[in-house]
Amino acid sequence: DGLTIAVAWGSALWETARAVRPGGWAGIEVVQCIGALGSADSPADGPAIAQLLAQKLGGRYRSLHAPLVVDAEDVCRGLLADRTIAETLDLAARADVALVGIGTVDPARSSLRRAGYLSATGVAELRRLGAVGDVCARYFDATGVPIRAPIDRRIVGIGLDALRGVPTVLGIAGGAVKAASILGALRGGYLDILVTDREAAELLL
User: Fold this and answer.
1) Which stretches of the chain score pLDDT less than 70?
2) DSSP class of 151
3) Exposure pattern of 162-187 as b/e (b: 16+ CB <10 Å)?
4) What pLDDT is recorded for position 44?
5) pLDDT of residue 146
6) So what's the pLDDT on residue 40?
7) 149 exposed, middle or buried (CB, 10 Å; 0-12, 13-18, 19+)?
8) Where are the alpha helices (DSSP H) in 64-159?
9) 36: which DSSP letter?
10) What angle do CA 134, 138, 144 make, to 5 degrees?
11) Considering the entire predicted model, what is its pTM?
12) Which residues of 17-54 are buried (b: 16+ CB within 10 A; e: fewer)?
């Protein structure tokens, strides 16, 4: 009862929300912690996940009414200064639990690449800077140190430092392609609980 749950987006989180057994708890609030895909009618987008999870838990949800990545840094600063967006991100940062996916810089499997937010050149640049993966679209290297890439200044969403302040961060990702990014996320201290599969776990070990 009374939990605030921050959620990102992605296919793993959508399947998680679908798998949750319906129940009634008092005072549950589900809040988006990063902006939406916006470019496609995808059930794996943040608003759909937040709404579904809130319905399953008998609570309410709060959407972050902004795209994940905007075209210009000044636009991003303006959106982050907007009262409604600032309040939503502040609520996400004060959540009790955060549900996040773990992204990869593999060009064929990058969620931001598939969503159109990154070009092939953009993914290559991230790899050149040492990025191995991302959590909430914030990239880090193999040791978990954040990568200060140009795209980072155009993202509407929770930062890694704020995410670390959430008491329980539950990361969901699997497959060999995600092993390096999962390891970076663990080394960076961004996850408290990891849900993964045997293939990724064996590579991590």
Assistant:
1) 38-43
2) G
3) bbeebeebbbbbbbebbbbbbbbbeb
4) 83
5) 97
6) 57
7) buried
8) 73-81, 83-93, 111-114, 120-128
9) B
10) 60
11) 0.93
12) beeeeeeeeeebbbbbbbbbbbeeebebbbbbbbbbbb
